[in-house]
Amino acid sequence: MSYSEDVVTSKLSSVNETQEAIVNIAQWVLFHRRYADQTVKTWAKALNDAPAHRKLGLVYLANEVVQQSRARKREEFLKAFSPAIAEALENAYRQCSPDLQGKIRRVVDVWRQRTVFTDEVLKDIDTRLDDADKKKPKQSSGGRRIGQGMSFSLGMPLELSKLATAHNDVHAKVNTLGEAVTSANKFYSAVTEADALPAPMEYAAQIEKALTSVNAALKASDEMLKSRHELIRQLETLLSVNQAALESETLQHAEIEGKKQKALDLQKEVSDMILGNMSEPSNDDTNHDNADSENRNIPLDEDENVVPDPVYKPLSETKPSADKAQALSGLEGLDPALVTFLSSLGEKDSSSTPPVS
Questions:
Q1: Domains 1-134 and 157-271 equal at CATH topology level
Q2: How confident is the model over 99-144, as pLDDT tens digits?
Q3: Dihedral angle of Cα 278, 283, 286, 288, to the nearest 10 degrees
Q4: Looking at the predicted structure, is the pLDDT value of residue 200 above 70?
Q5: What pLDDT score does 276 carry?
Q6: What is the distance of C-alpha 318 from the center of its chain?
Q7: What's the rounded Cα separation, in Å, for the pair 189 and 215?
Q8: Under CATH, what is the fold of the domain 157-271?
Q9: Alpha-carbon torsion 13, 29, 94, 105, what sign?
Q10: C-beta of residue 214 within 8 angstroms of C-beta of residue 187
């Protein structure tokens, strides 16, 4: 694949913390060492722009490139990284969690132990990282972040606790494996890519060191494979548990839906029953209506008076008795109003006199 900035950016975007990805991309970068300056600029930009969880992979890539360059005695990338590495690491360090910051510092310690960079470059890196630590915002005394200083298993289901343990085991072995493979590559390159072969005894000693280093890398790789298989097993177990739970909960959901529908049907039946009772007349009302109907249908007797005699009869409609007529005849010639008054007095006296038994 030909070299271009877009190709470099694409490869850097695919970097992760696995040894295989780092070594493969590092080999491609080293092959295009004549573009070292441009590659380092693109790497620094990618490191600054990458999210925190991807920054460590880019730092590991730089570590692989510079250590391979030193082992092969190629100066292109060492010279290209030296003026840029301190600032790039500082920017990444400020954006990482304490856990990732510790891993970045371990990479710097490896460079110091193996004199990958000059003392001046390493001192610049240390100064920048120390300044970044001093400028960290202080945490409030009100509490700590969730999970800080706590065990993964605290308050966590057993399945997740085992998964977290397996994941942490894999994560912890990434650095160990990376350093072992880097060392093995270094010694292997020294005995296979030397410009001139040393004396046989010295060469045999170098081969022995290479074999020791390769065996150490192979052992670290075996441990990583075991941990990775365990992590996958825990993931499969967790998936299986949740699939079984999903099937059970799906059946339970269908059962609850059925109960809901039955309750709705029962509610409708009772509602219809209530409305039906309200629209039908009661027995008392029916009997009363029937009685009225029967009374209306009874025929009247021919001799029965439809209209009864009135209880009260006006004075003008009654005929006066003989005595009363004689008394009134003696009042002729008087004023009519006076006659009326005297007549009313006579009526009152007659009404108040008790009957003779």
A1: no
A2: 889 999 999 999 999 999 999 999 999 999 999 888 765 443 334 3
A3: -130
A4: yes
A5: 83
A6: 104
A7: 15
A8: Helix Hairpins (1.10.287)
A9: positive
A10: yes
What's the average model confidence in pLDDT over 273-288?
68
- Please report the DSSP string for 233-280 in residue order: HHHHHHHHHHHHHHHHHHHHHHHHHHHHHHHHHHHHHHHHHHHHHHHS
Helix and strand counts by DSSP (H, E) for the chain? 13, 0
User: pLDDT per residue over 295-309, tens digit each?
Assistant: 555 554 544 455 555
Q: What is the pLDDT of residues 146-199, one digit of tens each?
A: 344 434 434 556 667 778 888 888 887 887 888 888 888 888 888 887 777 788
Q: What is the pLDDT of residue 153?
A: 38
The pair of structure tokens assigned to 322 is 């003989």
Lowest mean pLDDT among 31-35, 42-46, 123-127, 329-333: 329-333
Residues 6 or more apart from 68 whose CB is under 8 A from it?
Answer: 26, 30, 74, 182, 185, 186, 189
Tokens of 24: 């493969």
- In CATH, 1-134 is 1.25.40.90: yes
3-state secondary structure of 152: coil
Q: What angle do CA 321, 326, 329 make, to 5 degrees?
A: 125
196: which DSSP letter? S
Q: What are phi and psi of 129, to 5 degrees?
A: -70, -35
Worst-scoring range by mean pLDDT, 233-237, 241-245, 271-275, 351-355?
A: 351-355
Domain boundaries, the chain: 1-134, 157-271
DSSP 315: G
- Taking the C-alpha atoms of residue 26 and residue 185, their distance in angstroms, rounded to an integer, is 12
Is pTM beyond 0.70? Reply is: no
20 vs 16: CA distance, rounded Å:
9
90 contact partners, CB below 8 Å, separation of at least 6:
125, 128, 129, 131, 132
CB atoms within 10 A of CB 314: 7
Q: CB-based burial of residue 254 (10 Å sphere; 0-12 exposed, 13-18 middle, 19+ buried)? A: exposed
Question: If you write DSSP's letter for every residue of 82-121 in order, what string do you get?
Answer: TTTHHHHHHHHHHTS-HHHHHHHHHHHHHHHHTT-S-HHH
Say how far residue 184 (Cα) sits from the centre of its chain. 46
Separation between Cα atoms, residue 36 and residue 80, nearest integer Å: 6
